[in-house]
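FAQ

Q: What does a record look like?
A: Structure on top, sequence underneath. For example:
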């Protein structure tokens, strides 16, 4: 059974994070500072617009729907930049498992490939849906005269079409920024957790087969204990690296679901189809990401319980 294609899931994560200069094995400070400065200025302009129209409820809700995403984006890439060393160690650790020699039976390889394929599917879906949402948000106002794709406050008047098109074109950087900066960190978390789930499941299989070879039981038991200890350390390192990240995800996604739901209800579908579809896809993206976090947590919980039962039996 060939597992050479298993590294493709890491390649997807590589593409998402490398664009911002955040891939732990290829940091690019120039690229990171450019995008970080860009998104910070964007956030400042959106808050300026929020303050200017603070008495307009519909504008405030529409503005916050975008601004919270940008705040989460800034927070995510900042956490990743700070935790680069820990992330590099985690990725190096799981890369050791991408070798055929480590798997003794076809069942173990099947388990590994199952979780690897699942991880790749979720990462691809989140990336594509998030990218489509970013594009739809950007083009929804393209037919309106002198209307920006996002709710920002410019400190000069847009009176010429040429100036308008230049500013509008500058806003296009938000599409890859949202796609890579918002989805990228979440995708790497999902990849790491599902990989650990697969290794725990393989360990369960090894524990269940432990007594079938009484001559080598002491050696096998030693290897199982060492692997179990390694997986526990991986989970602890993952927890310490992502604890703050998951806290802001919990708060941010809760607010985004409320704002996205309000916008869907408040937007007349017949008059503003583009806006309605943008907010609908926006809400689907947030829900899909939330389900992804819940699913990997449930997988890790179930596999840990299965391992416990296997040891008991």
């Amino acid at each position: 059974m060939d597992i050479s294609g298993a590294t493709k899931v890491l390649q997807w994560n590589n593409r998402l994070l490398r664009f911002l200069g955040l891939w732990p094995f290829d940091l690019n400070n120039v690229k990171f500072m450019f995008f970080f400065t860009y998104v910070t200025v964007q956030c400042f302009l959106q808050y300026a617009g929020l303050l200017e129209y603070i008495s307009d409820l519909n504008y405030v809700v529409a503005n916050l729907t975008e601004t919270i995403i940008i705040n989460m984006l800034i927070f995510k890439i900042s956490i990743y930049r700070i935790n680069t060393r820990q992330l590099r160690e985690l990725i190096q650790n799981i890369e050791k498992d991408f070798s055929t020699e480590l798997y003794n039976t076809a069942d173990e390889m099947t388990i590994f490939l199952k979780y690897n394929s699942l991880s790749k599917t979720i990462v691809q879906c989140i990336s594509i849906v998030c990218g489509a949402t970013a594009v739809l948000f950007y083009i929804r106002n393209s037919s309106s005269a002198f209307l920006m794709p996002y709710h920002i406050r410019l400190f000069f008047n847009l009176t010429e079409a040429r100036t308008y098109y230049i500013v509008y074109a500058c806003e296009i950087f938000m599409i890859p920024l949202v796609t890579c900066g918002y989805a990228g960190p979440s995708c790497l978390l999902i990849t790491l957790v599902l990989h650990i789930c697969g290794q725990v499941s393989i360990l369960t299989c090894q524990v269940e087969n432990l007594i079938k070879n009484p001559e080598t039981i002491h050696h096998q038991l030693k290897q199982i204990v060492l692997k179990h200890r390694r997986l526990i350390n991986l989970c602890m390192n993952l927890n310490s690296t992502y604890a703050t990240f998951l806290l802001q995800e919990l708060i941010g996604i809760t607010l985004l679901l409320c704002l996205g739901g309000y916008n869907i209800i408040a937007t007349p579908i017949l008059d503003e189809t583009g806006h309605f579809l943008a907010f609908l896809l926006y809400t689907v993206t947030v829900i899909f990401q939330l389900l992804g976090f819940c699913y990997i947590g449930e997988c890790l919980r179930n596999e840990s319980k299965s391992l416990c039962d296997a040891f008991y039996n």
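Q: Is there anything notable about this one?
A: The chain is about 75% helix and 0% strand.
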